[in-house]
Amino acid sequence: MIQYPAIDPVAIAIGPVQVHWYGLTYLAGFAMAWWLGRRRCHTSGGLWSEEQLGDLIFFAALGVVVGGRFGYVLFYHFDYFLRDPLWLFKVWEGGMSFHGGLLGVLLAMYLYGRKLNKSFFQMTDFIAPLVPFGLGAGRIGNFIGGELWGRASDVPWAMIFPRDPEQLARHPSQLYQFALEGVALFCILWWFSRKPRPRMAVSGLFLLCYGIFRFVVEFARQPDSQLGFIAWDWLTMGQLLSTPMIAGGVLLIWLGYRRYPLVDGANSDDRQWLATHGEVSK
Fold it and tell me: 262 to each of 45, 125, 208, 258, how far by Cα in Å?
């Protein structure tokens, strides 16, 4: 067993004002997404500008926060919402859902894409490789906060989390998710998106890989206490919500290669957009 490196979840405290590590990790994730997005702008062949990127990050952040909160309340604590609808807005009490955040980001991409005259999948294919840093940073925040721990285990790297009422040695599943959803997913998507790909292929690969990674890690993660197992004494809510992502990812990749083949090594959908709208200003 490894000693849990207890870290004060409050990174900075100035009088009554407290800045938590969890918030700082989100900020770091968005900052890294912006930095990587600039590189993608410079290699987009005139499809994206840094000004558009700044607005894109803003709308994506808004979608993450609003969608993540709505998803957490509706997917995991709907009973709380029924008893006290105003609890939905008590964000200071914590609680975010990736799947809700994803839906929020998708809605934001659709709305902002209409303003730019870009298709929905033009938006998601561009932003997908930027997302894993935020996911990984969030899992580090979970680990520092000592929350969302794993199931009881006797593996040599098991830890006892201070906030665990049972005080059992458990999988540090937050670190598993950091390694898969953050590091591995970024490496896969960044490598795949460095060359022109058919429309929807990058988005599909994101859904496929994240869904698989999340489904697998759920076997080591403690099910939410208020839900337990959804079925068969092993299926969790996280796995239930990830299953459509896996199927949707496969479908998008198949449709992308079938409907939007590369033309002379370039994405036919992007080529058509440039012909219609011209290059954006740098």
Answer: 15, 15, 21, 10
